[in-house]
Design goal:
Length: 358
Amino acid sequence: MYRIAVIPADGVGPEVSEEAERALRAAARGHDFDVETEWFDWGCDRWLADGKMMPDDYLDILAGFDAIFLGSVGDVSKMPDHLSLELILGIRRGFDQYVNLRPIRLYPGVSTPIRTATAETLDMVVIRENTEGEYAAQGGIFKTGTPDAVALQTAVFTHKGCERVMRYSFELARQRSKLGSEAPVGRVTNCTKSNALNYSMVFWDTVFDEVAADFPDVETDMALVDALSMWMVKNPEWFDVIVASNLFGDIITDLGAMLQGGMGFAAGGNVDPEHRFPSMFEPIHGSAPKYTGQRRGNPIASIEAVRMMLDHLGEHQAADAVGMAIAEVLVEGEVGTRDMGGTNTTDEVGAAIADRIR
Ligand code: IPM
Ligand code: MN
């Protein structure tokens, strides 16, 4: 029995969360485990109603669950993004989910705007540091509202923080090379910018080299983040595992989402590899408030997030069943949301995948 906290939050979040739950239940039925979900009404509406998005003890509440599913957060017509997004960022930091796992893979049958990306060439994973770096939230605004105003935002790179996410990346590359995947595997690319960021990224590179020395069987490579963005488009087949800082990882995974057919296909896991705290899985697309309730959002990223959640929980067969169901429905091409060139609603696509899982 797994207890899953669902935070649907804002915009299309609730609609795609319904489909995530449907897929999760279908997978459980066929694989000998049970799921119990609890939905939380945390988000911008609650902030409008009582000035708080979530209760103060939200981390204590979530700590009792096996995993968290997050729909999508934010609606600027209700509250500023930099306040609402504390819901995601607070969970990532509070539960020390130091790995942000973002697979970038093109399912056969999905069209991509990038010609170099094919089901054969595109199979990489971005490991984004998820608790510190540019997102450390250290800084302040001095002389606010005066002509002399000054903003300071300090990135924080700790040896521990860099080392653990890099170790995870090398272990993942080693594991992928054993799986015999078709893409070139067993390589970790260091996404850096040490030519310009002369403290933080030079330090980051040093830690990378230290960790790499412990994994002589894994190939390494480094690319400056600007050039890396170009290479992701030009030669996606080159990449296997990419390890990146928080902000760089954020940026290159939106690019990755386009390679894989659009934001509707991109899922991510905010993972505590040590299983001390619940990990959180989410589609990485936004909340698209203007489409709220129209059932036009693509549920595949959310269902893909469920696949990742099941893998994390150790339900590998169920995870594979979810992945296969998505793949089959995409190859058949009989249902699709608008972003896929189809005319189906969120729930129609979700139901087709759930049927296939069953
Ligand atoms: C993401 C998102 C978040 C981030 C936002 C919503 C705070 O863009 O998960 O990639 O920047 O990490
Ligand atoms: Mn992002």
